[in-house]
Amino acid sequence: MMQESGTETKNNGSAIQNGSSSGNHLLECSSLREGRSNGETPAVDVGPADLAHIQQQQQQMTPLIQYFTSKQREGMDDRAGSENTKALQVARQLLLQQQQQQQQQQQQQQQVSGLKSPKRNDKQPALQVPVSVAMMTPQVITPQQMQQILQQQVLSPQQLQVLLQQQQALMLQQQQLQEFYKKQQEQLQLQLLQQQHAGKQPKEQQQVATQQLAFQQQLLQMQQLQQQHLLSLQRQGLLTIQPGQPALPLQPLAQGMIPTELQQLWKEVTSAHTAEETTGNNHSSLDLTTTCVSSSVPSKTSLIMNPHASTNGQLSVHTPKRESLSHEEHPHSHPLYGHGVCKWPGCEAVCEDFPSFLKHLNSEHALDDRSTAQCRVQMQVVQQLELQLAKDKERLQAMMTHLHVKSTEPKAAPQPLNLVSSVTLSKSASEASPQSLPHTPTTPTTPITPVTQGPSVITTTSMHTVGPIRRRYSDKYNVPISSADIAQNQEFYKNAEVRPPFTYASLIRQAILESPEKQLTLNEIYNWFTRMFAYFRRNAATWKNAVRHNLSLHKCFVRVENVKGAVWTVDEVEFQKRRPQKISGNPSLIKNMQSSHAYCTPLNAALQASMAENSIPLYTTASMGNPTLGNLASAIREELNGAMEHTNSNESDSSPGRSPMQAMHPVHVKEEPVDPEEAEGPLSLVTTANHSPDFDHDRDYEDEPVNEDME
DNA sequence: GGTCCGGTAAACAAAA
DNA sequence: TTTTTGTTTACCGGAC
Fold first, then answer.
1. Which residues contact A210 (CB under 8 A, 6 or more apart)?
2. What protein residues sit with their CB closer than 7 Å to strand B?
């Protein structure tokens, strides 16, 4: 509640200037008044001097903010917009001086308080007042300094904007922190009173004091965070820092002493910090313009992003604009965080909650060589995917041209042809409406949204893929796969909320087979689904039910009672029985399939090389899954072998095409006459190389290998 | 048009 | 009591 008020104040146009500082003071003062008005002994013994100090600093702060605000409103007049950052430097120095002084004062207070007797009236004032003051006005600038800045008028619009925004962010942090701090104080007051009335001994009071001290330390850490923020400014070149002002390391918060509210506060504060830091990264040595940068840049800081930011956002997986919106609307949503897992490529660290994720993000994925390299790799991956997509499009066009297939777009879709989209659009054009595809009944009204979060280039076209899972296509529509998609699809399905074109049974089997012991619990299967497919991170009730349904329904899934409960295994014999035999009639198809698998290697090798070049071991499992390509390949071979076996031995078995491999049937187009009806085929099934029977549906079947290997 | 298959929804029961 | 797990049935749409 207090935080809300703080936010409102911040968002209020006219209140911006003094909303943070004065607002904080007022809040504190009012809080103090309340304490007194209640007839309770004020635990926070803020003396007149302190109040005067607060007011004074408030007055000092206001002109600067007003100035910045006015500059912003004036459209950041470039009149004085020389790039000279001298004024900013001055301001920065002043701020740092202030902070130093406050820290020193705080430390002194702490020392004093530590020596003081646990008597109620003695301990708290020393502990609290300095902290609150320090936290409220870490960046106070004296009127003289302010005037100096104003006289110089050397701030460029961008600098002003940056400074103003960051100032606001810091103020918000301070405000929130202060509010929480006051809450803590009030609680402690109550505790003290209760203890006093109950005749508690100083021991407990000491405990309370200890808590106070701990909290104070946390506040100090917040200051350090702010300093880091300033450092990030320095990185941006917007500020220069004094050589003698070392950056304080971000110390971990004292565990076990962070109450829920503090965690909440911490979360918000670190969120802002993260955003700022990310922005700093953007301007630092890295000229990263893709996901890694744009992903976590909130709207607040979007203004200070480089001119390419918006463009980058469009090209990257996440657009800054959308991200910022989502951040505003869903404070806990973060493109790098989902389902309790850090989505940083290759990380997948489990973070229980958003605050812990933010901490993790700040600690593990700070601006360093590794993160830089990862971002670069991600860029390369995206670029490679883009290139591959372009190639495939070209190839498709050539194929269509060769087959004299007049564009089926009128019938299929107006959207650009893509491996994915074309598949969806093909035969079942009637159903191909993008909106109708992806969604489970649970989300009928939100058809496209999930897909929009997909990977950059693929996203647009892939939107149309979402629904295909149910549809099956006959072999004749299959077209030789372009080498492309293996790694692509893996990454794609992991990031894009596009429904994989595989049956639940196939996915379940894959999950089980990928497990070390070839057996998984239901929950582990769930986890595999969510881990491997972004699509299954939503509508859990639906697909989980389907998973259970499939497990129970299909004989190929065998439930085994284990020591630790029931696990599910795959009866390959039964599963093979399910396989379609369509492929059986076409040995050549199998050949093609095999050849198509060969594509995997080069692509993955390239990706791996790229990663190795950047020394990014993390990528191995998470985003690319390259390391597991071997497994994937072997799985494909197994599939192929199975299909071959069927081809050789079960030709008579003509159950409607369902073999995993069936999808792979290579290029029927070449072997079968192309009739008008089939003409659509190429379009719809551009990629059909490897497949499990169930994977046959509307997609290129190279996906399966990828998916199988994802793990 | 019938059949098969997969996806989805739902009800129900047992176990945790 | 709630949640998870497991089973079963029904329905629908797509492919054959």
1. none
2. A 440-442, 469-470, 502-505, 539, 541-543, 545-546, 548-550, 565, 578, 655-656, 658, 693-694
